[in-house]
Amino acid sequence: MLVTGTVVADADTVIEDGAVAIEDGAIAAVGEADALRETYPDHERRAFDLVAPGLVGGHVHSVQSLGRGIADDDALLDWLFDAVLPMEAAMDAEATRAAAELGYLECLESGTTTVVDHLSVNHAAEAFEAAIETGIRGRLGKVLMDKESPDGLLEDTEEALAESEALIEAYHGAAGGRVRYAVTPRFAVTCSEACLRGCRDLADRHDGVTIHTHASENEEEIQAVEAATGRRNVHWLDEVGLTGPDVTLAHCVHTDESERELLAETDTVVTHCPSSNMKLASGIAPVHDYLDRGIAVALGNDGPPCNNTLDPFTEMRQASLLGKVDARDPTRLPAEAVLRMATENGARAAGFDRIGRLAPGYAADVIGLTTERTRATPLHDPLSHLVYAAHGDDVVFTMVDGEVRYDGGEHVGIDAAAVRERATRQAERVVEAAGIEG
């Protein structure tokens, strides 16, 4: 296939009349459209106003999709322990499958081709099956929780680690390597030292398996960890082995100087979730400082109950504007830096080597957008438009690994209306079973 349009190949490269040639699931060439039409005369041709790399959701909770809107305007720990965790505990296999399918379809139709997905304690295999079926690229992991957790989610440590290993053996590298595993402890508050150390041991035993957890999102969380361990959160995670280039820490809103030094020294990846952090009033992550130290910072939506949308374009805009306000400097976090967070840095968080750019040899994760919108007129700068003005519903074409997954408003190979109907039905049942008041 030859995809043409204004090509935003990466954060530094825009080709106004460009093209991307795709062969055997990979990008064969990127360049001027006329030249590539001559080189690839027999390729199927598709034209879009803007062509860009698929975006990476560096921290999402697909299985929380059934809880969109259930706990708006609550404090983080109330939101988590009074609504979200009871909902997860009430979810059976059917509900988990419906939630994951719904989340992945929302991602694909709004330009996210790769997710780093923090699942739940139970029925994680259903989400892996949903990822395989929908065609999204993903780094998924079953959640581990072995202390201070509600009924239905509290696990025996060894059983949780054994189930995680079974999932690794079943799904790590599935779908031709498109689906991979991350060992996923919920966070230090709900995981014992034995559990956290076991997560590191488990990841080390399996080639290419990474670690994904939450860290330092909320001040109460930090106080709880320090009371239990005598250490700041990031120092505690480092002591039990949960830092390093194979670790993605979501949020990292409240870190001190020593923790930031440690994140940089260990090459740990941070995922910034600006909309979630604003909605839950967690605070403003020190993204400028992280980037200045050379820490890879990705972008994530977090979950629908604390964001209400999995639109990656919303997250890019929020990240840039919040960063400017935080620094009191309109030059900070420019569009180029934010797009890099949503693509190349996201690839680091997801642990995939050749995604996040449109370049020869990279996986053909490609999105096409329309600019037939009033808010896209005039369009002086395509890259600026992607970060500040575009919305997920501008996406009209999504390709993952060379396979078209969303085209002209329709999901390919998936009955999206049926998914939405199942998800609505399951959400009503689960919320009632969990006793959550609207």
Summarize the structure.
The chain is α/β, with parallel strands linked by helices and 438 residues long. 41% of the residues lie in helices and 22% in strands.
Please give a structural write-up.
Helix 14 runs parallel beside helix 15. By secondary structure, the chain is of the alpha/beta class. The strands form 2 sheets. Strands 5, 6, 7, 8, 9, 10, 11, 12 and 13 form a 9-stranded parallel β-sheet that branches. The chain has 17 helices and 17 strands. A hairpin with a 2-residue loop joins strand 15 and strand 16. The chain is globular, with a radius of gyration of 21 Å. The model has no long low-confidence stretch (mean pLDDT 97).
Can you lay out the helices and strands and say which pair or pack?
Blueprint (H helix, E strand, L loop, with lengths): L1 E9 L2 E11 L2 E7 H7 L5 E9 L1 E6 L15 H15 L2 H17 L2 E7 L5 H11 L2 E5 L1 E2 L12 H15 L2 H4 L1 E7 L7 H13 L4 E6 L3 H11 L3 H7 L7 E5 L5 H10 L2 E4 L1 H6 L7 H6 L4 E3 L12 H16 L7 H8 L1 H7 L15 E4 L12 H7 L6 E6 L2 E5 L2 E2 L4 H19 L4
Main attributes of the structure:
17 helices; alpha/beta; 438 residues; 8-stranded mixed β-sheet
Give the CA-based shape. Answer: globular
Number of helices: 17
Mean pLDDT figure: 97
Low-confidence stretches: none
Strand content: 15-25%
- Classify the helix fraction into a percent range: 40-55%
Distance between the termini: 48 Å
Whole-angstrom Rg:
21 Å
Strand segment count: 17
Largest sheet: 9 strands, parallel
Global structural class:
alpha/beta
